[in-house]
Amino acid sequence: MDSDPAQARIGQLLFYDRILSGNRNISCGTCHHHDLASGDGLSLGIGEGGIGLGEERLVGDIRKRVPRNAPSLWNIGHNSIDVLFHDGRLEVSNQFGNGFDSPAEEWLPQGLDNIVAAQALFPLTAQFEMAGNPGENDVAGATHDRIDAAWPIIAARVRGNETYVDMFIEAFDSVEEPLDLTIVEIGNALGAFINTEWRSFDSPYDAWLAGTPLPENAERGRALFFGEARCATCHSGPLFTDQGFHALGLPAFGPGRTRTFDKMPRDVGRMGETDLLSDAYRFRTPSLRNVALTAPYGHNGAYPSLADMIRHHADPVSARAAWTTDMAALPDAPRFGGVDFAIRQDTREMARQVAVLDINPVALSVAEVTYIEAFLHALTGVTADARPMGRPESVPSGLPVD
User: Fold this and answer.
1) Distance between CA 25 and CA 399 in Å, rounded?
2) CB–CB of 299/252 below 8 Å?
């Protein structure tokens, strides 16, 4: 999906500008950083109130870890993508008359260019990601009134910056004066940047499609991936995802994605969106392009390496049993120690999760795991570390850039 360069330039600045966060202390780029291949390198993110980047990020004053692993942004603007987030709570749909089925339902404004533009708006309203806690700032307070109430406040902040206003007037036909600048233009600018910046289709595998052989181990892995290992059953198509939802039986930990009526620290996955028991503990199949750059793996970042994740897919029951808490990349937070792994002590909940599994085990030798891992490395773009726009040195608000 091609994007307007002038709009993408605004999006690049906004992506790293803390002005979009409730307490002006975190940006989109904090958890989707260029140095970390559009991720944060953590199993569960440290959002609003944290300090630093990646595995060195300190918990600061946060009240809770982000319940899920920060998904990478590679190729989410591809024209085949019609559902986003681990639980698929954002989908292309006409259900609410604005082009999307989302947590904002009919309150999501019309005019968003694509699903990436829509997706960019939701971290701004998430308490533990960017909004902050009630009573701390006007954005957080408004969000708790209704999800869309914070967006005009954020847009007003951006309108108060003359540099941004001039750029929006120049780049958007819909903006002729400051008051024309709304959250829709902000979302479209962020979407233009993400769709421009995180596009990657120049891997050795792409070269193989054009006739260039893969290295021997990667070729063996390719044969297994599309053959006996059955990886392509779910990881199919140009992005290596069926965009479906499957239960992998990953080890459970973290604060859980709790719901108003369910405060247990668990994550029921797709069921949290659909309320269908048949969707319990199922999560969206991720794309595998540039997957070697985006550890840790799983909806909760349970596994630190590709080999670990491959072994889990091959034998999820044994891998889950062998999993240890030190495999999770969780920056030290003594006050969360009892919460991080509390769910693992609930034998009934663990039994419920173990009972839901969509993977049929397959016997893989040590060598075969190595071959599949080599193939997954062959999905890394040759220019993955040379992004067309990159991280800005400064942003119009004057706030620090991570």
Assistant:
1) 8
2) no
Alpha-carbon gap, residue 15 to 293, rounded angstroms: 20
Nearest 5°: CA angle at 157, between 152 and 160? 120
Residue whose pair of structure tokens reads 């297994």 in the numeric block: 224
pLDDT in tens, the chain (402 residues): 689 999 999 999 999 999 999 999 999 999 999 999 999 999 999 999 999 999 999 998 888 999 999 999 999 999 999 999 999 999 999 999 999 999 999 999 999 999 999 999 999 999 999 999 999 999 999 998 999 999 999 999 999 999 999 999 999 999 999 999 999 999 999 999 999 999 999 999 999 999 999 999 999 999 999 999 999 999 999 999 999 999 999 999 999 999 889 989 999 999 999 999 999 999 999 999 999 999 999 999 999 999 999 999 999 999 999 999 999 999 988 888 788 999 999 999 999 999 999 999 999 999 999 999 999 999 999 999 999 999 999 999 999 999
Distance between CA atoms of residues 54 and 124, nearest Å: 20
Q: How far apart are CA 46 and CA 54, in angstroms?
A: 9
Give residue 180's Cα distance to chain centre.
Answer: 30
Q: CA angle at residue 252 from 251 to 253, to 5 degrees?
A: 125
Contact by Cβ (8 Å): 388, 197: yes
Distance (Å, whole) CA 47 – CA 30: 8
Q: Amino acid letter at 140? A: A
Between CA 16 and CA 391, with CA 171 as vertex, the angle to 5 degrees is 20
Structure tokens at 208: 């193989």
Count of beta carbons in the 10 Å neighbourhood of residue 360? 8
* pTM listed for this prediction: 0.97
68, 58, 52, 37: which is closest to 328 by C-alpha?
68
